[in-house]
Amino acid sequence: MMPEPSALLDELSWRGLLHQQTEGAAGYLAAGPRAAYCGFDPTAPSLHIGNLVPTMVLVHLARAGHRCVALVGGGTAMIGDPSGRSAERPLLDQAEIDANAARIRDQLVRVFDAAGTAGVTMVDNAAWLRDVRMIGFMRDVGKHFSVNYMLAKDSVQSRLADGISYTEFSYMLLQAYDFLELSRRDNVTVQVGGSDQWGNLTAGVELLRRASGTEGHAFTAPLVTTSSGKKFGKTEGGAVWLDSAMTSPYAFYQFWINTEDADVGRYLRMFTFLTRAEIDALDAEHAAAPHERSAQRALAREMTTMLHGAPATTVVAEASRIVFDKRVDVASISDEAFTTLAREMPSVRVADSSALPVLDALEQAFGLSRSAGRKLLQQGGVTVNGVKLGADTASVPASDAVRGRWFLIRKGARDIAIAELAGPV
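Now predict its structure.
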């Protein structure tokens, strides 16, 4: 049984996922189950976490009983969307686009499976756009749009000063055609996207009306910024990607665990499937003891599990705790957590399996000269496996290694490194 449409829109609003909607959209959803779609651009090998915002709108539509389609733009990526761009995109070849599209489909499937929305259909607009003939397209689609209408769109206006190619100028027609094609193929009449897509979405609604007399509607999700005004999903290392080869599960977890206090409640609403009661409880817990970061840990756990699975989340949560908790029992750290930290932190592989040479390890891990390493030891600034080293400590025996293999080295209060002995004791 579908929830009341007002309840669905209230839920989207409460979660901060509703920005714009076409006139009459709420009533249109009220008339019965609809088919909706959201498009994803495979001009990169991975989606980033900003793409999750409109994805979540599609997910909530599916969870509310609407039929949903996720479209990967293997055809439109041959052109490139000018929305939100200050310069022309470099054109990719077909093989690269197809490879990107396959990886993005896998990422979306993980999100939909985590949401329990197994009924979401995956399509690629390469199936119809790559075979479109120009004369027919101009007659059947181009005639429905005046140049003035297209020039008025923000995605075009923002590029007029520096110039926009005819290729990118025509992009909105291709996206509008997607909407028409999906309407004809599968009765899709609702489109979802980010707020920067509003012009493209409404062009599709207009084409449905003009070309087939079909009523269509569009919803957009907001573009997200942090409370401090920073662009959401950006770190010093660049974008936070959904692909584990581009942003590791550990780095992905750390992004969410480092969420600012002012943002964590908002992100729990937008990006997780936790209920209102669960989020309200986390809000209260966070307000009472923000230093415990219980809300951030819940957010990081939910997001990492959704994208990378529960086993990976268990390992990276353990690794994260090790970094920040100097009181951790080193002997209890799993091999998986040590291996994860060795990939993410400075690490040393010790050829001599009998002991850890301290000055050599400090030099390799932290770039300290031998004199600087000695000075740090004299200041009591080095611990290995939780034990503060003395000023004259030259080596730590293999018998002190965790399972005869691992050393956790701390330099001062914040810096850590992992040392691994080359072979068994």
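The mean pLDDT is 89.
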